[in-house]
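Input/output pair, single chain:
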Amino acid sequence: MVDDMRFNYSDLNPDLIMDALDLSGLRLDSGLIELNSYENRVYQFQDEDRRRYVVKFYRPGRWSRAQILEEHEFATRLAEAEIPVAAPLAFAGETLLEHEGYPFAIWQSVGGRQFEVDNLDQLEWVGRFLGRIHQVGASKPFHHRVRLDVESMLHEPRHLLASGEWLPSGLAKQFFGVLDELIKHVSDAMTLDVAQISLHGDCHPGNILWRDGPMFVDLDDCRTGPAIQDLWMMLSGERHEQQIQLDTLLAGYEEFMEFDSRELALIEPLRAMRIVHYMAWLARRWEDPAFPRHFPWFNTDHYWRQQIATLHDQLEALKAPPLTLMPGW
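Output:
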């Protein structure tokens, strides 16, 4: 495996992709349509029987073979439990193939429209399936996937940002000052002793399609963590709006899985971790030509001033009382 800090996809050309797909036995009857993905490279295509598929070339060096196979096994168990999750296809019994150093997998293409996160009926439906996903996730722990923790989400990103030339020199002291204060608050909050289960891990609305009900896609970031990680990204708007959304989501969720209300105190710490991890993700991927092209604002004064303001706002959110369940819940 290569070092994913410096890796880019310059060698992943159409001929290589076609040769890789030959390993599956599928024969293309269309061109390759590149889908929106920065971490991996994802393409939709149609075979000679006019069936649509999606192939994902994993970024070499990001996950080990064991970690990817555990992702696939989790998705397969969810699908076998009749949970609407996109699971990879097996070819000669293998879901993970490799060609020229590129690990890849193939899925049937699943269409659908955007999940309407402000639609309470849809939100309750999503809550039910998240409860079922967590039932399955709690029944078998991950052994190879990473854990959602302060070290990987805050300390490692801080070290990466401090060791490079990402921040303008005049803003570094201010940025790391507020970041260090945020890390302390989050570290204290994440000592809460709650159950750690196998999660989707990146369950934001963009990873849910709607086709006669929810369809969960992209388990690339599945990991071990608290249940609230798969719930909090469904919440948006003002506090009273989030309160309604939370109660709607949990009304469906608790039909299948008991929710530990203490985890509500982890929503803002987890949000803070995601904010900081995203900054470091951009820095880590900067050698990939796709990133300067799509995120040209990353190394500008304006961007880092915005991030300082964002961290200050998040500090205030960390100090505020967490969301609570409605009376009588």
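The chain is about 40% helix and 10% strand. The longest strand covers residues 102-108.
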